[in-house]
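User: ok so my PI wants both of these folded by tonight, can you help

Assistant: No problem, let's get them done. Here's the first:
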Amino acid sequence: MRNLILLLVVFGLANAAFLKPDEAFKASAYMKKSCTVSASIDLGEDIYLYKSKLNVKLLNEQDVVIDHINLPQGVNHNGETIFEKSPEFEIVLKKNKDIQGIIPVTVQLSYQGCSMRGVCYEPMQKEFTFNINTSKLSLKSTPLVVVSQTDKITQTFIEGNVGLILLTFFGFGLLLSLTPCIFPMIPILSSIIVSQSKEMNAKKGFILSLVYVLSMSAAYTLAGVLAGLFGSNIQVTMQNPWVI
């Protein structure tokens, strides 16, 4: 009982050290006179935002489209481009056909980021609705199709060769079995081989090691394929106290 109380206190202190999602990311947007949406995401202390996870789209409206988005430059962080400072950007709108009048347009912002203290937040969305005077919009001949990085990966799984995808993940799993993260498992494998010492030789030791490595590669293959198909944030899920 005493250990359980101590554990709950530790979890409580850990959660208290991190900002709530609405405190870490405060999205806002307003309509400029030129029918351009000016948006920003105010980041909390020690919070950064992934540039690849920042997406903008219009909901329930086909006559008005996004022409382009003016995003600020980010910085490199472990191979990913991030915003360490609160990003401010403009969403330039155009219309697909020659229409007049005022119509409501809903802009949806999707974004995700992490804390420098080691916790990532779930993907978030915020919607803003504006009354657009379409007479002030320029006519666009070809609508812009914005595809996020996650959508591209998902499309690859849907349209790609299943055998090739599985083989690729299997190869990645085989490479992962050679990384330092696997070194703590070497004594376990060694103990399995030593326990069979009475009938053990080089050939049997190799077969046992091969089965061990291939099994771990298969596990990585399955985990990688499932993560890709479901598009879930594994890092966030694994930080859930119940999973831990």
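One down. Here's the second:
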Amino acid sequence: MAKTRKPARAAGATAITRQRAGRLYRLLGLLGEKPQTRAVLTRRLSQNLRGFYRDLEVLRKFGIEVQLVEGRYALTGKAADAQGRLPFPDPGLSLGEALQLAKGRTVTHRNLKEQIAEITG
């Protein structure tokens, strides 16, 4: 009988670059300060309009709410909470390094162990 596989987590489905992860982190920091216009955000992040809207879509995909109120983008909730939901770019670990990090009893350790088990069978 074949093993039943868990569906892939939504967070794992979107791989992001280190540059994008840093930009998303900075975007949430700016939005956490106060509501800001699109022009200010794109200028401070050195980003074009298309990239700005793509980044907003990534934030929404991970359950981070950003609302447009009177021409200004505002973060719903605290920036620190939202930053904790951001996807993390692939750290490029070896299997041995991942096994070392998987030692522990927290939910995060168990998640990493499950990912290793999927790879190693």
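The longest strand covers residues 66-69. Residues 5-12 have pLDDT under 50 and may be disordered. Good luck tonight!
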